[in-house]
Amino acid sequence: MKDQENFVNHIRPRxxxxxxxxxxxxxxxxxxxxxxxxxxxxxxxxLMFHYQPGDRTGYNSILTIATVIPxxxxxxxxxxxxxxxxxxxxxxxxxxxxxxxxxxxxxxxNWLVGVALLLLILFLDFTGYLLIGSQESGAAATVAVNILRxxxxxxxxxxxxxxxxxxxxxxxxxxxxxxxxxxxxxxxxLFLQLYHFWRIRRDGGVRPL
Length: 209
Ligand code: HEM
Known about the structure:
Elements: H1 7-11, H2 23-26, H3 29-48, H4 57-67, H5 72-99, H6 108-131, H7 135-149, H8 155-164, H9 175-202
Helix pairs in contact: 3-5, 4-5, 5-6, 6-9, 7-8
Protoporphyrin IX containing FE (HEM) binds at residues 26, 28-31, 33-34, 90, 93-94, 97, 100, 102-103, 107, 110-111, 114-115, 117-118, 121, 193, 196, 200, 206.
C-alpha cells in the first residue's frame, strides 16, 4: 500500500508548521467543542436506555432517571452541562475565527460549514430542552410551532409538523423531536465536524493567513 493511501498517515499531519501549537492562537476552543460533543454523545446514549419520549412519559422518565436510576442524576447533569458548555465554546470559537480573520479565502467554505454546525448545535440544544417534557418546554414548543405557522400557505404548518410533530402545550416531548435530537441531528453534526477537520488540513492548517 502506498503511503498516502494509509488511513493512519492520512489523519496524522506529516509536518506541523511552526507556531500552530500556540494555545493563545486558538485557545483550543474548537477542540473543546468537539470534546464536549463526544461527552454529550456518550452520556446521551446512556440516557436513551431509560428515556421515553411522549406527552406524559417524557417528564416522568426524566424524574426516574434523576431519582431512581443509579448515577442517572450525574449522567443527566453531565449531558446537560456539556450541552450548555458546547454552545458557549462554539460561539467563542467563531469569535476567535473572526478575530484572526480566518474566514477569508481559502477558508471560506470551512466558515460556511462552521455556520451550519452552529445552527445544528443550537437546534440540538433547543430540542434537548423540549425533551425535558416540562410545562416550560411545552410553552417553548408551542411558541416555535406558532412562529413557524406564520409562514404562509401550508409551508409553515408542514415545517412545524416535520420538525416538532404535535407537541402539547404542557410538554414539548414528542417522538419527532426525540428522533431529531437523538439520531438525525447528531449524525449530521458528526459528519460535518469530521469534514470541518479534514478541510482545516486541506486549507493549510491552523495558522495566520
Ligand atoms: C461543532 C462545532 C465546531 C467544532 C467542533 C469546530 C472545531 C474546530 C477545530 C478543532 C478547529 C481547529 C482550530 C481550533 O481549535 O480553533 C477549527 C477551525 C476552524 N473553524 Fe471550527 N468548529 C466548530 C464550529 C465552527 C463555527 C461555528 C465556525 C464559524 C462560523 C467555524 C469556523 C472555523 C474555521 C474558519 C476554522 C479554521 C480556523 C483557522 O484556520 O484559524 N467552526 N474548528
